[in-house]
Specification:
This protein is an alpha+beta fold and 366 residues long. The chain is 23% helix and 31% strand. It has a 5-stranded antiparallel beta sheet. Strands 3-2-5-6 form a 4-stranded antiparallel beta sheet, with no helix packed on it. The chain is elongated. The chain starts with a helix and ends with a strand.
Length: 366
């Protein structure tokens, strides 16, 4: 019994010693001296490796965030315009090539071509003769680099359109809108209406007669034809008598003035030319008589009957042609004077012998 108890005590003692020695040995085995290349150096290497690994992770994470942020900014940048430039080339054009352009109150030539303008607002005006001016402003930026102007024509001054515009000393006149401002009578001297033929007068005479020839012509002296007749008045060439230089009828020899009074005259060659050239002539009839309707620039009109004329004691071309005296002498051949002549197919300036009986349509000087 004693021997068993002794054996057990020895076993317990041995286990205690072994357990203590094993613990010490185990601790020594794991721990080594901290020399270069030892566990301490490996710890540093491990720490460095861990640090690099963490750094890479950090960089990867940071890079990922940086790329995401950059992408986000790039996407955001597409919705916002880049800053405006200091200025732009602006192209101008206009429907009137000669129009003048003013920018900020300064003349800039014609309203065409390209100009460099600073970014922002600018006052602009465009002018051209015969057109209404344009005044406004333009805003220069990236989106506005061209400007087109369309000017409107000024309206033509209106003139009243009327057939009869008034009377003078009891006789009607019409304003045809002629450049000279000459007003024409609406009927012939001696007529009772616009279509009536009226009286016939020799050139330089103020009353009618039954026969028209050289021998009873006022101011005739000698001769019986254009080659040898001579006169005492309205002579510019000595071939036709004593020269007085008169080329137009005096008032006392003017059938319009004498019969209708002050203000009325027989028309000059120039006034007849204006009527012929500035008006529209149409062969027609009025009051049973043929003649021409003459429409002036303003739309007003008058009627000249084809009254023909008188030669000797006979009538000539009634209803077929019209011959109207001027007050102007044909100086190249002093026995002739200017007339305005027309028929169904033509109207023109002509000349005829001073003794012939022709119509007179007065004018009222402006």
């Amino acid at each position: 019994m004693k021997s068993k108890i002794l054996f057990l005590l020895l076993c317990v003692f041995s286990l205690g010693v072994m357990g203590q020695n094993g613990k010490t040995q185990g601790t020594i085995t794991r721990k080594k001296p901290k020399t270069e290349g030892s566990t301490g150096g490996q710890d540093k290497q491990d720490q460095k490796t861990d640090s690099n690994s963490n750094k890479k992770k950090t960089q990867g994470s940071s890079g990922s965030r940086s790329q995401g942020s950059s992408s986000s900014r790039a996407q955001s940048g597409g919705n916002h315009p880049a800053p405006e430039a200091a200025g732009y080339d602006v192209t101008f054009s206009c429907n009137v090539s000669s129009a003048s352009l003013y920018i900020d109150g300064t003349a800039n030539g014609t309203a065409s071509g390209t100009r460099f303008l600073k970014t922002g607002n600018h006052s602009v005006s465009v002018t051209a003769s015969g057109y209404n001016d344009y005044t406004g402003s333009i805003t220069v930026n990236r989106q506005n680099t061209s400007c087109r102007f369309t000017l409107e024509k000024k309206p033509e001054p209106s003139r009243p359109v009327a057939t009869t515009t008034g009377t003078h000393r009891g006789h009607e006149w019409v304003d045809l809108g002629l450049p000279s401002g000459t007003k024409w009578a609406t009927m012939n001297v001696g007529a009772s209406s616009s279509s009536d033929y009226g009286n016939y007068y020799a050139w330089g005479e103020t009353s009618t007669k039954s026969s028209y020839d050289w021998s009873n012509l006022r101011y005739w002296t000698t001769g019986d034809s254009g080659d040898n007749v001579k006169f005492s008045k309205y002579v510019t060439d000595s071939k036709y008598g004593n020269v007085d230089g008169k080329k137009e009828l005096d008032l006392s020899d003017d059938a319009a003035y004498v019969n209708w009074g002050t203000g009325w005259r027989m028309p000059s060659k120039a006034q007849q030319d204006e009527l012929r050239e500035k008006c529209t002539w149409t062969w027609t009839s009025m009051g049973g008589h043929n003649g021409c309707k003459v429409v002036g620039p303003n739309g007003s009109s008058l009627f000249l009957p084809a009254a023909g004329g008188r030669n000797d004691s006979s009538s000539d071309s009634f209803g077929a042609s019209g011959d109207y005296w001027s007050r102007t002498l044909f100086t190249s051949y002093g026995h002739l004077a200017y007339i305005l002549g027309f028929y169904s197919g033509d109207v023109g300036r002509s000349i005829t012998s001073r003794y012939c009986g022709r119509s007179v349509r007065p004018v009222l000087a402006p």
